[in-house]
Fold this protein.
Amino acid sequence: MSEVAKKLILIIEDEPDIVRGLVDALEFEGFAVASASTGAEGIEQARELRPDCVLLDLMLPDDNGYRVCEALRRDDPIVPIIMLTAKAQEADKVRGLEVGADDNVTKPFSEAELIARMNAIFRRQNRMAAQEETFLIGGWEINGRKHTMTQGRVSKRLTFYELEMLKLLRERSEEPVSRDDLLEKIWGVQANPHNRTVDNFIVKLRRKLEEDHKNPRHILTVYGFGYKLIV
Protein backbone atom coordinates (compact mmCIF):
# COMPACT_ATOMS: atom_id res chain seq x y z
CA MET A 1 0.00 0.00 0.00
CA SER A 2 3.01 2.31 0.29
CA GLU A 3 2.89 3.29 -3.39
CA VAL A 4 -0.85 3.97 -3.24
CA ALA A 5 -0.48 6.06 -0.05
CA LYS A 6 1.64 8.55 -1.95
CA LYS A 7 -1.11 9.31 -4.44
CA LEU A 8 -3.32 12.35 -3.94
CA ILE A 9 -6.86 12.32 -5.32
CA LEU A 10 -8.70 15.61 -5.89
CA ILE A 11 -12.51 15.41 -5.79
CA ILE A 12 -14.36 18.28 -7.51
CA GLU A 13 -17.98 17.65 -6.48
CA ASP A 14 -20.66 19.78 -4.81
CA GLU A 15 -22.84 17.00 -3.32
CA PRO A 16 -21.65 16.52 0.31
CA ASP A 17 -22.95 12.94 0.60
CA ILE A 18 -21.02 11.85 -2.48
CA VAL A 19 -17.87 13.62 -1.28
CA ARG A 20 -18.08 11.97 2.16
CA GLY A 21 -18.56 8.54 0.64
CA LEU A 22 -15.63 8.99 -1.74
CA VAL A 23 -13.34 10.37 0.96
CA ASP A 24 -14.09 7.44 3.26
CA ALA A 25 -13.55 4.86 0.49
CA LEU A 26 -10.36 6.47 -0.86
CA GLU A 27 -8.78 6.99 2.55
CA PHE A 28 -9.58 3.39 3.47
CA GLU A 29 -7.61 2.34 0.38
CA GLY A 30 -4.65 4.46 1.47
CA PHE A 31 -5.06 7.48 -0.79
CA ALA A 32 -4.63 11.07 0.33
CA VAL A 33 -7.72 13.14 -0.55
CA ALA A 34 -8.53 16.79 -1.19
CA SER A 35 -11.89 18.18 -2.27
CA ALA A 36 -13.44 21.25 -3.85
CA SER A 37 -17.12 22.12 -4.28
CA THR A 38 -16.83 24.46 -7.29
CA GLY A 39 -15.02 24.39 -10.60
CA ALA A 40 -12.98 27.49 -9.81
CA GLU A 41 -11.87 26.09 -6.45
CA GLY A 42 -11.03 22.76 -8.07
CA ILE A 43 -8.85 24.38 -10.75
CA GLU A 44 -7.04 26.40 -8.09
CA GLN A 45 -6.43 23.33 -5.92
CA ALA A 46 -5.23 21.30 -8.89
CA ARG A 47 -2.64 23.97 -9.69
CA GLU A 48 -1.51 24.16 -6.09
CA LEU A 49 -1.59 20.47 -5.10
CA ARG A 50 -0.72 18.73 -8.40
CA PRO A 51 -2.93 15.69 -7.68
CA ASP A 52 -2.31 12.23 -9.11
CA CYS A 53 -5.94 11.91 -10.22
CA VAL A 54 -9.01 14.16 -10.43
CA LEU A 55 -12.59 12.99 -9.91
CA LEU A 56 -14.68 15.67 -11.63
CA ASP A 57 -18.44 16.16 -11.39
CA LEU A 58 -20.13 17.19 -14.63
CA MET A 59 -22.68 19.53 -13.02
CA LEU A 60 -21.07 22.11 -10.73
CA PRO A 61 -22.68 25.22 -9.21
CA ASP A 62 -20.42 27.69 -11.03
CA ASP A 63 -19.54 25.87 -14.25
CA ASN A 64 -19.93 22.61 -16.14
CA GLY A 65 -17.39 19.83 -15.91
CA TYR A 66 -16.48 20.01 -19.60
CA ARG A 67 -15.05 23.51 -19.29
CA VAL A 68 -13.36 22.65 -16.00
CA CYS A 69 -11.83 19.57 -17.61
CA GLU A 70 -10.46 21.68 -20.47
CA ALA A 71 -8.89 24.09 -17.96
CA LEU A 72 -7.35 21.23 -15.97
CA ARG A 73 -6.01 19.68 -19.16
CA ARG A 74 -4.39 22.93 -20.27
CA ASP A 75 -2.45 23.01 -16.98
CA ASP A 76 -1.55 19.31 -16.96
CA PRO A 77 -1.81 17.16 -20.11
CA ILE A 78 -1.35 13.81 -18.37
CA VAL A 79 -3.11 13.86 -14.97
CA PRO A 80 -5.90 11.24 -15.03
CA ILE A 81 -9.37 12.82 -14.99
CA ILE A 82 -12.45 10.68 -14.33
CA MET A 83 -15.74 12.47 -14.94
CA LEU A 84 -18.68 11.78 -12.61
CA THR A 85 -21.98 12.30 -14.36
CA ALA A 86 -25.67 11.62 -13.86
CA LYS A 87 -26.07 11.46 -17.61
CA ALA A 88 -25.68 8.10 -19.26
CA GLN A 89 -26.15 9.16 -22.89
CA GLU A 90 -23.37 8.16 -25.29
CA ALA A 91 -22.98 11.76 -26.51
CA ASP A 92 -22.17 13.00 -22.99
CA LYS A 93 -19.53 10.31 -22.51
CA VAL A 94 -17.97 11.06 -25.88
CA ARG A 95 -17.84 14.79 -25.19
CA GLY A 96 -16.09 14.11 -21.90
CA LEU A 97 -13.42 12.10 -23.72
CA GLU A 98 -13.04 14.80 -26.35
CA VAL A 99 -12.30 17.52 -23.78
CA GLY A 100 -9.65 15.38 -22.12
CA ALA A 101 -11.30 13.06 -19.57
CA ASP A 102 -9.76 9.59 -19.25
CA ASP A 103 -12.95 7.85 -18.17
CA ASN A 104 -16.61 8.41 -17.28
CA VAL A 105 -18.56 6.97 -14.36
CA THR A 106 -22.33 7.36 -14.24
CA LYS A 107 -24.09 8.14 -10.95
CA PRO A 108 -25.06 6.29 -8.85
CA PHE A 109 -21.80 4.38 -8.94
CA SER A 110 -19.93 1.89 -6.78
CA GLU A 111 -16.89 3.33 -5.00
CA ALA A 112 -15.19 -0.05 -5.51
CA GLU A 113 -15.69 0.17 -9.28
CA LEU A 114 -14.44 3.75 -9.38
CA ILE A 115 -11.28 2.84 -7.44
CA ALA A 116 -10.72 -0.15 -9.73
CA ARG A 117 -10.87 2.16 -12.75
CA MET A 118 -8.44 4.57 -11.12
CA ASN A 119 -5.99 1.78 -10.38
CA ALA A 120 -6.26 0.55 -13.98
CA ILE A 121 -5.25 4.03 -15.18
CA PHE A 122 -2.33 4.11 -12.72
CA ARG A 123 -1.13 0.69 -13.94
CA ARG A 124 -1.25 1.90 -17.53
CA GLN A 125 0.75 4.99 -16.60
CA ASN A 126 3.35 2.84 -14.85
CA ARG A 127 3.75 0.66 -17.95
CA MET A 128 4.22 3.75 -20.09
CA ALA A 129 6.79 5.23 -17.69
CA ALA A 130 8.81 2.03 -17.83
CA GLN A 131 9.23 2.34 -21.58
CA GLU A 132 11.71 4.56 -23.38
CA GLU A 133 9.49 6.34 -25.88
CA THR A 134 11.35 8.68 -28.24
CA PHE A 135 10.72 8.62 -31.97
CA LEU A 136 10.73 10.90 -35.00
CA ILE A 137 7.88 12.02 -37.22
CA GLY A 138 9.00 14.37 -39.93
CA GLY A 139 11.33 16.82 -38.24
CA TRP A 140 9.71 16.42 -34.83
CA GLU A 141 11.16 14.38 -31.97
CA ILE A 142 8.34 12.86 -29.94
CA ASN A 143 9.21 12.21 -26.28
CA GLY A 144 6.73 9.87 -24.60
CA ARG A 145 8.12 10.39 -21.10
CA LYS A 146 7.81 14.17 -21.22
CA HIS A 147 4.72 14.28 -23.48
CA THR A 148 6.46 16.74 -25.79
CA MET A 149 7.27 17.14 -29.46
CA THR A 150 10.40 19.15 -30.25
CA GLN A 151 11.92 20.61 -33.39
CA GLY A 152 14.95 22.80 -32.86
CA ARG A 153 14.02 25.37 -30.24
CA VAL A 154 10.30 24.80 -30.67
CA SER A 155 8.60 22.52 -28.15
CA LYS A 156 4.91 21.63 -27.92
CA ARG A 157 3.05 19.62 -25.30
CA LEU A 158 1.06 16.51 -26.16
CA THR A 159 -1.96 15.31 -24.23
CA PHE A 160 -2.19 11.68 -23.16
CA TYR A 161 -4.57 10.81 -26.01
CA GLU A 162 -2.61 12.72 -28.64
CA LEU A 163 0.51 10.79 -27.70
CA GLU A 164 -1.28 7.44 -27.61
CA MET A 165 -2.75 8.11 -31.06
CA LEU A 166 0.68 8.96 -32.48
CA LYS A 167 2.17 5.83 -30.94
CA LEU A 168 -0.51 3.57 -32.39
CA LEU A 169 -0.26 5.17 -35.84
CA ARG A 170 3.54 4.86 -35.69
CA GLU A 171 3.33 1.16 -34.77
CA ARG A 172 1.51 0.66 -38.05
CA SER A 173 3.21 3.39 -40.07
CA GLU A 174 2.57 3.30 -43.80
CA GLU A 175 -0.54 1.16 -43.11
CA PRO A 176 -4.09 2.48 -42.75
CA VAL A 177 -5.60 2.27 -39.26
CA SER A 178 -9.38 2.34 -38.98
CA ARG A 179 -11.27 4.90 -36.92
CA ASP A 180 -12.94 2.03 -35.08
CA ASP A 181 -9.57 0.51 -34.14
CA LEU A 182 -8.22 3.84 -32.87
CA LEU A 183 -11.36 4.48 -30.86
CA GLU A 184 -11.48 1.05 -29.24
CA LYS A 185 -7.76 0.60 -28.53
CA ILE A 186 -7.09 4.11 -27.19
CA TRP A 187 -10.39 5.16 -25.59
CA GLY A 188 -11.94 1.76 -24.97
CA VAL A 189 -15.16 2.94 -26.63
CA GLN A 190 -17.15 0.83 -29.04
CA ALA A 191 -17.48 2.08 -32.61
CA ASN A 192 -20.33 4.47 -33.29
CA PRO A 193 -20.98 6.20 -36.66
CA HIS A 194 -21.75 9.47 -34.83
CA ASN A 195 -18.59 9.44 -32.72
CA ARG A 196 -16.18 12.13 -33.95
CA THR A 197 -13.57 11.72 -31.20
CA VAL A 198 -10.86 10.30 -33.47
CA ASP A 199 -11.40 12.90 -36.19
CA ASN A 200 -11.31 15.75 -33.67
CA PHE A 201 -7.98 14.54 -32.25
CA ILE A 202 -6.54 14.11 -35.74
CA VAL A 203 -7.35 17.78 -36.41
CA LYS A 204 -5.50 18.77 -33.20
CA LEU A 205 -2.48 16.63 -34.07
CA ARG A 206 -2.26 18.00 -37.59
CA ARG A 207 -2.26 21.56 -36.27
CA LYS A 208 0.72 20.66 -34.07
CA LEU A 209 2.62 18.36 -36.40
CA GLU A 210 2.04 19.45 -39.97
CA GLU A 211 3.68 22.43 -41.67
CA ASP A 212 0.36 22.99 -43.47
CA HIS A 213 -2.42 21.27 -41.53
CA LYS A 214 -4.85 21.68 -44.42
CA ASN A 215 -2.49 19.76 -46.73
CA PRO A 216 -0.97 17.14 -44.40
CA ARG A 217 2.11 15.17 -45.39
CA HIS A 218 2.37 12.86 -42.38
CA ILE A 219 -1.14 12.07 -41.06
CA LEU A 220 -3.12 11.15 -44.14
CA THR A 221 -6.82 10.41 -44.42
CA VAL A 222 -7.84 7.06 -45.87
CA TYR A 223 -11.32 7.99 -46.97
CA GLY A 224 -14.12 5.85 -45.66
CA PHE A 225 -11.74 3.96 -43.35
CA GLY A 226 -9.36 5.91 -41.13
CA TYR A 227 -5.84 7.36 -41.14
CA LYS A 228 -2.27 6.48 -42.12
CA LEU A 229 1.01 7.87 -40.74
CA ILE A 230 3.91 8.64 -43.07
CA VAL A 231 6.99 9.23 -40.92
